[in-house]
Write a structure and sequence with these properties.
Radius of gyration: 24 Å
Distance between the termini: 47 Å
Mean pLDDT: 82
Helix content: 25-40%
CATH superfamily of the largest domain: PPM-type phosphatase domain
Low-confidence stretches: 1-9
Number of strands: 19
Strand order of the largest sheet: 1-2-9-4-7
CATH class of the largest domain: Alpha Beta
Length: 464
């Protein structure tokens, strides 16, 4: 990462001094403001702080909290992803441009870095101001989501084209016509092509394959939540999750985050396919569902809205199974929705082992699909165990599957194991069964334990 950190002098902040007519020009040039009144866009930008950056400085750093957005008014910036092996350049953006807004509205840490390619002047918009603007102007959020959908459509085109190119590289029949398409890509794929040409050259020369896969895995792992995001609710719920890809880059996902001080969302999913295309679609799915679960009143409505967006821009027909849950600490009510995913197992504190029976289409197949919300109640001591089919589909040298019955038996046997050790112990059980056979699929699991209910202020009751 040192190459990206070579130049980090402090940015220079100053009061807003842009001419009002210049702000109007910027608002008119940014499509995301096209659905709101011009004055509303002007007022938002005018409320920001003017910041100057020298060439090489970071405007946004990968991994940091998404607490503001930036309107680049002068200069050129580069979008980059960091890994321990160096940088992956994703795009170059000329002013005017709006960056960092997706993280603000989805509350996801920065998934990429923005670096000044030239001297840059930008307007810093606080996260709270952006959130208020979105609430006051719902059409702005809709426009932003449409733009995000168009980005996903571009990603999907890139996935199809570059998956074909990767297969050609692996078969060692990389045709000159394919190379010509890479050197002279469609306009919307220019930024992808620049990165891929470098990748193609390296694979063709049998160099740096492991480093490239490590970059992709670093991008994937940066999307997974850290345990410390739940510090403030550990008195009520305990969550542990683990993912072990079968290959260098996997297609499974899990997520957990607070919707508000009283509600926790957690999900698990499995994208069809493996490798980089699956990892890209996994990242899209996770970002979309994070946003929808925060915006929609019910889990089923969030899945319905997220599926409509993913399916509408999914020309490559990729899909993802997903199980979504929202737990209310005050009541123990667990609202859930299955999008073609395995039913979780409910480990009751009294020793019972239950299975939730729900079924629907995976995300990304049919944009007309409607998903419903179901509920159950958790008491203190109850656990919810979510998993992907890497557990049930694991097999040994004799081609025997681990299967659902063995999984239920193993989970029941481990029910008294502390949450922090449960998933690792279950994976060891699967490994012992496999007897050295290669891991067939990604192994991903999440365990959520209801510790205590949160007392409602003024109800005269304590936690318990």
């Amino acid at each position: 990462m040192s190459s990206l950190l070579a130049f980090q002098r402090s940015a220079t902040s100053k009061p807003m001094t842009l001419d009002p007519s210049r702000i109007v020009t910027i608002v008119r040039a940014l499509p995301v403001f096209g659905s709101v009144s011009e004055q509303a866009g002007v007022d938002l930008i005018a409320s920001g702080q003017l910041v100057d950056y020298e060439e090489g400085q970071l405007l946004i750093k990968q991994g940091e909290p998404s607490d503001h957005a930036l309107v680049v008014v002068d200069g050129v910036v580069e979008v980059m992803v960091e890994s321990k092996y160096g940088l992956v350049q994703l795009a170059s953006l000329d002013a005017p441009a709006l960056v960092g807004e997706i993280g603000v509205f989805t509350n996801v840490p920065r998934t990429a870095s923005i670096q000044a390619k030239t001297k840059v002047r930008a307007i810093k918009l606080g996260g709270d101001e952006c959130q208020r603007f979105g609430q006051q102007n719902p059409s702005f959020l809709s426009t932003m989501m449409r733009q995000l959908g168009r980005r996903f459509e571009t990603f999907n085109k890139a996935i199809g084209f570059y998956s074909h190119a990767l297969e050609a590289l692996e078969r060692e029949n990389f045709e000159l016509t394919l190379l010509e398409d890479l050197m002279h890509p469609l306009p919307e794929l220019v930024d992808f092509s620049r990165s891929f040409v470098r990748l193609a050259e390296q694979i063709t020369l049998r160099k740096a394959h492991r480093e490239e896969m490590a970059n992709a895995r670093a991008i994937q792992e940066s999307m997974l939540p850290e345990d410390d995001v739940l510090k403030q609710c550990r008195d009520y719920v305990e969550v542990h999750a683990k993912m072990r890809p079968a290959r260098e880059v996997g297609g499974d996902l899990y997520d957990f985050f607070l919707i508000d001080p009283d509600r926790l969302a957690f999900t698990i999913g499995d994208v069809c396919g493996k490798g980089i295309p699956a990892a890209l679609f996994m990242a899209m799915t996770q970002m979309v569902m994070r946003y929808m679960l925060r915006q929609q009143p019910e889990v089923g409505a969030a899945a319905t809205a997220g599926n409509a967006l993913l399916a509408a821009t999914n020309r490559e027909m990729m899909f993802a199974t997903l199980f979504c849950c929202v737990l209310d600490f005050r009541t123990g009510l667990l609202s859930y929705c299955s999008c073609g995913h395995h039913s979780p197992l409910i480990l009751r504190g009294d020793g019972k082992l239950e299975e939730v029976a729900t079924s629907s289409l995976p995300l990304g197949i049919d944009e007309r699909t409607k998903y419903k919300t179901s509920t159950l109640t958790l008491a203190p001591g109850d656990r919810v165990f979510l998993f992907t089919d890497g557990f049930t589909d694991a097999h040994n040298g004799a081609e025997m599957l681990f299967g659902e019955d063995r999984l239920r038996g193993a989970v029941d046997k481990l029910r008294s194991t502390p949450s922090r050790d449960f998933i690792g112990s279950l994976m060891k059980t699967v490994d012992d069964f496999a007897e050295g056979a290669p891991q067939f699929d990604d192994l991903t699991a999440l365990m959520a334990t209801m510790v205590a209910r949160k007392s409602v202020q003024g109800d005269g009751a304590g936690d318990g």
